[in-house]
C-alpha cells in the first residue's frame, strides 16, 4: 500500500513539473506570474503555464519557446511592475504604453534584461527616478519614457547605450543638467547613434553642453522646449548637419545665436522663441529647407527687415513677434509660394503695407498688430486675414475689418465625413458611426505633433493626407482596421503641439480584440507609423479600450434558452408555493420584506465595528459612531459650533488621538439618500493629496449623516483676499497659493482614480492651512466618470456651480469637462490679481480685465483693476504672464483653454521669473504675516455638504 501512495505522489509531481517546464524555461513562468500578481486587468486568457503554447494575448515567443515580446498597450492594466520581470531573460520588446494605472517606480532589475531592444512606457503612471541600471541594456535601440511622472536627474549611465537610436524622456518632471561624459563617468555625448533627443516639457536646468554635439552625430530632432535651460546656444550645434528640427523655445537661454547655425541646410523647423537671446538677429539665408521659424520674444538688436525673409522659398510660417524689426515690409514677401502665416506683432514696422497683386493664395494670416504702419494698399479680392490693430492706421473710430481681431478664426473643426450614410442610420449601446457607415466601438486617443511644418490648421486636405497615410500603414501591417476619423481644433496647445483626436474603427466586427488593440498601440507607440513629412515628430496618447467582448458582452446571442429555463424555474416555484401552509407563507413574506428593506440600505449589511470589508468601498477614512462624534464635540455644544449653512451645522471636534477635525452635520430633512451619501464618501475617500482637504471619516449612525474633515486653520482664500482673516497676501504668497490650488485641481483631473471634475472651484472652496498652503475643498457637486464613460470627452449632466465662476460653455451645452474647472480656476486667478469678487456691482471681473487690457503698456494697463499689493510687485513680467495664463483659462471655448497640468507648469515658470522656488509652496506660518490672523469664523461654511446644493440658474445670486 505504501508503494502505491508513493507512486501516486510521484505521478502528481511529474505532472506539475511538466506543466511548468512546458514553457521551456521555468524563469519565464516565474516572471510572468510575478507580473500577474502585481497587476489588475491583465488579459483574461493569461491562464495555464505555457504562454507560448496557449497564445497569451500580448505575448510572443521565439523559436526556442522563450518569451521575447510583451506588448500590452491601452488595456487598462493597473498596479506596479514586478522586479521579477528580469526572469524573462530573452525579452527584446516591452511596451506597456497608455496604461495610466501602472504606477510606482520602474524597477532597477530592468537593467538585467540584457537582450532588450525596445523599452516603451509612453503615457503610464510611473514615478520616482529613472533607474541608472538602464545603462546596462547594451542592445537597447528604442527608449520611450515620455508622458510619465519621473523625477530626478537624467541618469548619466544612459550614455553607455551606444546602439540607442531613439531617446524620448519628454513630459516628465526631470530636473538637473543634461549629463555629459567626464573621465570615467559616461554622458549623453557618447550616444553616437542617436537620431532623436526628445527632452521637452521637463524642468531641466543648466547650460546646453557644447560637447553634446559633433559633426559625426546623426541627430535629426533636438527637442528641448519648455525647460529651464540657461546660458548660450553652443556653436557646436551648427556642426550637426543632419538636424531637421530644433526646438529650444520656452527656456532661459541668453547671448547671441551662433553664426554657424546658418550652416544647417536641412533644418525644416526652428523654434527659438521665448528666451533671453540678444545680439543681432540671426542670418538664416542658407536654411533652404526651412518651413517654420519662430524667434519671438527675445531681445535682439534692432534691425531692418532681414533680406533672408525673401530667400526662404520653402517657408510656410514666419513668426517673429517682438524681435525689434524695423522698416517697411517688401511686397515680394507676400508672394512666397508656400507662405501660410506671417506674425510680426510688437515690432517697429512702419510705412505702407503693400501686399501686391501676386499674393500667395495659401497665405491665411498676416498679423502685424502693435507696429507703426500708417497706410494699407490692399488688392481686390484678397482672402488672407490681415490684422493691423494697434497701428496708426487704426486710429480711434476706424471700422475697417483689418482694424479688428477676428473672434472666430480658431473655432472651426474638421472631421472626416461619413460617406453617403443613410440619414436614419443611428448607433446605440455607445457605438459610434464610422466613416464607412458602420456602428462600432473605436479605439481612441490623440496624435500630438511637436513641430509641424504647416500653420494652416484649417486645411482639410492636409488632414485627409494624414488619414490616408494612417489607413495605408494599418493595411500594410495587416491590422484589423476598417477606417479612421480625425477631429481637430485648428490650434496648437500651450506648449506648441498640434493635437489631433483620433478614432480607429475595427473591421469585421464592432469591437477590437485585445490582440488587435495591443498591436495597433505598438504600431503607434514605437513609431512604426510615419505621418506625412509636414507633420514632423509626433507621439500618440492612447485611451484605455473598454469594449472588449468579455467586457461589453455579446449582444447578438439569442436569449431564448435562458427564457425557457427561467420560465420553467418560475413555474416550479409557483407549484411549490401552492403547497406551503399559510403560517409558513406568512413567515417567508415577513423575511422577504425584511431582506428587501435591508438591501435598500447600502449600509444595511455593513458592521462599522468589524473588519468585514463590506460596503462602502473605501480607500481611506473610517466610520465613526454617533457616540464617538458626540463625545469629541462635547455633545455638539454651541461653543464648538464654527459655522452653518443650508445643509446644517459645522462643529470643531477633537478625536481621541488629539487630531483637530471639522464635522459637518446634516440637519434633518436636508439629507440626501443613503445611496448618494455612500457614493459621495467613496469618492472623497479616494482623494489623497497635500493640496486637497482630506476626508478623515464619516458617521452614518442613528439616522445621522456627517462628514469629518481635517481642520484647516486659516479659513478660505476669499476671506484672506477680502481682509477678514487679517492675513496680508503679497504677490509671492498669491503665486504660491495659485500653484498649490492648481496642483490640487490637477490631481483631481489626472491622478485621482477615477478622475474627478470638481464643478465648483472658487475662492470660497480653497482653504489655507497654518503655513498658507492651499487646499481644494468641497466635493458636494463633484462628478467622476464611471468606467463605462472614460472614453467620452464630456459628461452630460445638470448644470450646477456658482455664478461668476461657472463655465459659460457648460451652462449652454450641459456638457461637463475638465475644462469647466479650468475656467473657474481662471476666475480665481483673476481674484488673486484684483482681490475682487467675480461679480461686484453688476460688473464681471473677466470682462473688466479683458476690456482694460493693453499689452503694449506697463502691467498691460491693468493698474486700476489690480490690487495695489499686486501692482507694486517688483518681479518684472511675472504679473503679465500670470494675466496671460488666467485669460487663456477663461476662453469662451473649452478647447482653447489649457489643461491643468499646463496651467501648473506655467505658474511654476512664473515663480521662476519672480525668483521663487516652486518646489516650496508654503511661505511661512501665518504668524509671520503683517496683521494678526483672526482665523476664519468658519472655514467650511461656504461648502455644500451634499451634491444637490449649489444649483446654478440665472435667477440665483452669486453665493450658494
Which properties best describe this structure?
single chain; 960 residues; alpha/beta; Leucine-rich repeat, LRR (right-handed beta-alpha superhelix); Phosphorylase Kinase, domain 1; 15-stranded mixed β-sheet; six-stranded mixed β-sheet; 18 helices; 22% helix; globular
Structure in words:
By secondary structure, the chain is of the alpha/beta class. Among the domains are: 20-203, Alpha-Beta Horseshoe (Leucine-rich repeat, LRR (right-handed beta-alpha superhelix)), CATH 3.80.10.10; 431-551, Alpha-Beta Plaits (2-Layer Sandwich); 616-711, Phosphorylase Kinase, domain 1 (2-Layer Sandwich), CATH 3.30.200.20; 714-960, Transferase(Phosphotransferase) domain 1 (Transferase(Phosphotransferase), domain 1), CATH 1.10.510. A 15-stranded mixed sheet has the order 2-3-5-7-9-11-13-15-17-19-21-23-25-27-29.
Question: How are the SSEs placed, and which strands pair?
Answer:
Blueprint: H1 2-21, H2 26-38, E1 39-40, H3 51-54, E2 59-61, E3 67-71, E4 78-80, E5 93-95, E6 101-105, E7 118-120, E8 125-129, E9 142-144, E10 149-152, E11 166-168, E12 173-174, E13 196-198, E14 205-207, E15 221-223, E16 228-230, E17 245-247, E18 254-256, E19 269-271, E20 276-278, E21 292-294, E22 303-304, E23 317-319, E24 325-327, E25 341-343, E26 348-354, E27 365-367, E28 372-377, E29 385-387, E30 414-415, E31 432-433, E32 439-440, E33 443-449, H4 460-476, E34 481-492, E35 498-506, H5 514-525, E36 538-542, H6 549-552, H7 560-578, H8 582-600, E37 622-623, H9 626-632, E38 641-645, E39 648-654, E40 660-666, H10 674-685, E41 695-701, E42 704-710, H11 717-721, H12 731-750, E43 756-757, E44 766-768, E45 774-776, E46 783-784, E47 795-796, H13 808-813, E48 815-816, H14 818-834, E49 839-840, E50 843-844, H15 845-852, H16 868-871, H17 878-889, H18 900-913
Parallel strand pairs: 3-5, 4-6, 5-7, 6-8, 7-9, 8-10, 9-11, 10-12, 11-13, 13-15, 14-16, 15-17, 17-19, 18-20, 19-21, 21-23, 22-24, 23-25, 24-26, 25-27, 26-28, 27-29, 37-41
Antiparallel strand pairs: 1-4, 2-3, 30-34, 31-32, 33-35, 33-36, 34-35, 38-39, 39-40, 40-42, 41-42, 43-46, 44-45, 47-48, 49-50
Helix pairs in contact: 12-14, 12-18, 14-17, 17-18
